[in-house]
């Protein structure tokens, strides 16, 4: 009988005895002892295994990298597009609110180019004769004066900017109502001329269009006084005026039909 179960008893002993030693012997009562014994060899073993995995799975990893890179580029392009859409909607909202507050008919146009010969003094818009525009019509933005239509085609028009030396408009200092003629200059600023030497003008004063202007409605902001200078040739005062509209970054304009 004993001989019949001898092998089974041996197998059970092989399984049970190590477990009894592990749980009953004081030295082995804490499982951390086994972890301490095996931790360092396992660390040594992990290094070659990791390197072998990199070799065996290189192609799969590289393909996954290319897929994720392409996905990231697509998401980044989408983010840029959404940011541009948000900024465009903000500009259109400003234009819409500005037009609602004005009592005249106007047309919104997109800036589609600039004249290479006078990059900072003129621009091209996507509106023309077919939209009812004419030479001389004033061009503004929600911030203030931009310029005036100088040349016109069927579907496009050229606008000279307020900073162009050939641009001029009747203007006044809003605070004191001192009036004069504002012209562009080669320096990118404007000059408010023909103010009397007793004119009360200070740096920071707002300069707006005057009702004496034959093209622009009155009260549209042109810029801020940057410097006040006495004229050398007469008893008058000239002001340097910094246009309030950043003419190098403008993307949409409003053409006033008058």
How are the SSEs placed, and which strands pair?
Blueprint: H1 6-24, H2 32-56, H3 58-101, E1 106-113, E2 122-125, E3 138-140, E4 145-152, E5 157-161, E6 168-173, E7 179-184, E8 190-196, E9 206-209, E10 221-230, E11 236-243, E12 252-256
Antiparallel strand pairs: 1-2, 1-12, 2-5, 3-4, 3-12, 4-5, 6-7, 6-9, 7-8, 8-11, 9-10, 10-11
Uncertain stretches of 5 or more adjacent residues = none
- Helix/strand structural class: alpha+beta
Work out the number of β strands: 12
Q: What is the N-to-C order of secondary-structure elements (H for helix, E for strand)?
A: HHHEEEEEEEEEEEE
In short:
The protein is an alpha+beta fold and 258 residues long. The chain has helices spanning 6-24, 32-56, 58-101; strands at residues 106-113, 122-125, 138-140, 145-152, 157-161, 168-173, 179-184, 190-196, 206-209, 221-230, 236-243, 252-256. The protein has 3 domains: 32-101; 104-161, Rod shape-determining protein MreC, domain 1 (Thrombin, subunit H, Beta Barrel), CATH 2.40.10; 168-244, Thrombin, subunit H.
């Amino acid at each position: 009988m004993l001989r019949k179960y001898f092998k089974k008893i041996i197998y059970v002993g092989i399984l049970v005895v190590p477990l009894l030693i592990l749980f009953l012997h004081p030295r082995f009562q804490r499982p951390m002892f086994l972890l301490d014994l095996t931790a360092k060899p396992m660390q040594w073993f992990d290094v070659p295994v990791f390197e072998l995995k990199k070799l065996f799975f290189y192609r799969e990893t590289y393909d996954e990298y290319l897929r994720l890179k392409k996905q990231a580029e697509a998401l980044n392009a989408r983010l840029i597009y959404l940011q541009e859409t948000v900024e465009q909607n903000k500009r259109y909202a400003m234009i819409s609110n500005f037009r609602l507050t004005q009592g005249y008919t106007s047309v919104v146009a997109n800036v589609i180019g600039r004249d290479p010969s006078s990059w900072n003094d003129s621009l091209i818009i996507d509106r023309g004769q077919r939209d009812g525009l004419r030479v001389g019509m004033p061009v503004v933005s929600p911030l203030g004066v931009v310029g005036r239509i100088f040349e016109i085609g069927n579907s496009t028009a050229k606008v000279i900017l307020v900073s162009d030396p050939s641009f001029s408009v009747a203007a006044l200092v809003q605070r004191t109502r001192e009036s004069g003629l504002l012209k562009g200059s080669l320096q990118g600023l404007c000059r408010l001329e023909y103010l009397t030497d007793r004119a009360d003008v200070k740096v920071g004063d707002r300069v707006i269009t005057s009702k004496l202007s034959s093209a622009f409605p009155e009260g549209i902001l042109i810029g801020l006084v940057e410097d006040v200078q006495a004229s050398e040739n007469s008893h008058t005062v000239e002001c340097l005026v910094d246009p309030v509209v950043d003419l190098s970054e403008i993307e949409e304009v409003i053409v006033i039909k008058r």
